[in-house]
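Minutes, project check-in

Agenda point 3 was the complex the collaborators sent over. CS summarized: two entities, 232 residues total, and the question is how they sit relative to each other. Sequences were read into the notes so everyone works from the same version.
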Amino acid sequence: MRKILIIDDEDDIRQVAALSLETIAGWEVVTANRGAQGIAMARSEKPDAVLLDVMMPEMDGPTTFKNLQADPATAGIPVILLTAKVQGVDQRRFASLGVVAVLFKPFDPITLADQMKEALGWTD
Amino acid sequence: MADAADKTAQLLETLWQKNLPIFHERMAILQQASDELSRTHSLTQELRAEAASTAHKLAGALGMFGFPKGTDLARQMEHLLIEPRELTATDAAAFSVWVKELAEVVTP
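CS then shared the predicted structure for the full assembly.
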């Protein structure tokens, strides 16, 4: 079974994303509400992918991603950024970070898993 | 898949009900900003930043719960609040309308 780590400071977003991925895709989901906690969980839980919010207090998504990339234990985990920012300049900046994909809030809970599968190249 | 989608839709409704207090807290912040804007045609830096952050969160969440118009309205508010300029009486009037519309969209 695939395991996904969701890192987002907003309770409602975490809850809906987890519900979607567990119910629709049947994936195991673990969650963190801060970047630092998410990095620790990435090391301990070894998820198959991370769904990472951009705007978070203390450590934002791009910084969290850079920290994940800098650690050999987590550098190989594919990361998908999740953002409510829709301006083109933001999209280009996020895409240039080296993440697998950038998905946008509000996402459709029914199709979130399919969007992630497509971005990750997962066919199962 | 249809069963999973139906189950997800049902659980989403449950989550929406569970998260209503968060929504009401966020609306209260936007209402506070709207009241202040209507009265003074300006916002303190703190309230403006808080309202922009709140609108950003609502924009990201409401569509997910089946309120796409709510996302559009919240996004309009966010964009207005993050513009690097002073707000005006016209902005205050528009913001007040958006807050009212947003409340109506999510509480029919």
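Noted in discussion: The two ends of chain A are 10 Å apart (CA to CA).
Follow-up: revisit at the next meeting once the mutant set is ready.
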